[in-house]
Amino acid sequence: MTLTFNMPETRNALTDADLCNAIVDAMHRINRDQTVRCAIVTGAGTAFSSGGNLKHMKEKSSIFGGDAVDAKDGYRSGIQRVAKAMWECEVPLIAAVNGPAYGAGCDTTCLCDIRIASTRATFAENFVRVGLISGDGGAWLLPRQVGLSRAAEMTFTAEPVDAETACSWGLVSKVVDPDELLPEAQALAARIARNPPRQLRMAKRLLREGLNTRLDTVLELAAAYQGACHQTEDHAEAVVSLLEKRDANFTGR
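Above: the chain's sequence. Below: its structure in token form.
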């Protein structure tokens, strides 16, 4: 599945309520659909996402309206729902970063499992530049991708880093020419999607748990998952296909 942020007139600003709701709905659909094995997230137009809508900030509208309590509720019902839904997406997510990913846009790339960048992509944790802080989990996400020192540099300077720098820092896996971005992401998605779907979802869940959980807890969860995997038809098919030196045909059972 390919999901495209399609509000190029706002450079795909992620504080628009309709876009937030659409992203959350898409994540829920993916989780329900066992035929989906991988998803690509990208942006329409020249930007991946500009983050917060500056016009709404100026007008004190959308999630930025009202008093401090109203703003808190706006974040919780808007961009924070997006962060939770994307983080809890059960299938591997690939961010195909086609252009600038600023603020919440940068943090959204960090919610994905793998990032591939166009040479036109730039990344900025630029909240302080507009007198704000990351309201969507960036302080938790970014250090896990680039380490605390570089996350602090990006956060405190609010300066953008180009795609090659992002790659050298480990924020993205690969940098490609703009015309190659979606084909590269699709090729990677195909390499992922050829594997058994339920096992892919369990493997992602283990990686997520490993970020915050003790080793013995992860081992216990892994043992339970392994017990379930051994009972599946896809496990039997994987073993037989390897022994017979042929491509496997996985059904999700």
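Residues 14 and 235 are 40 Å apart (CA to CA).
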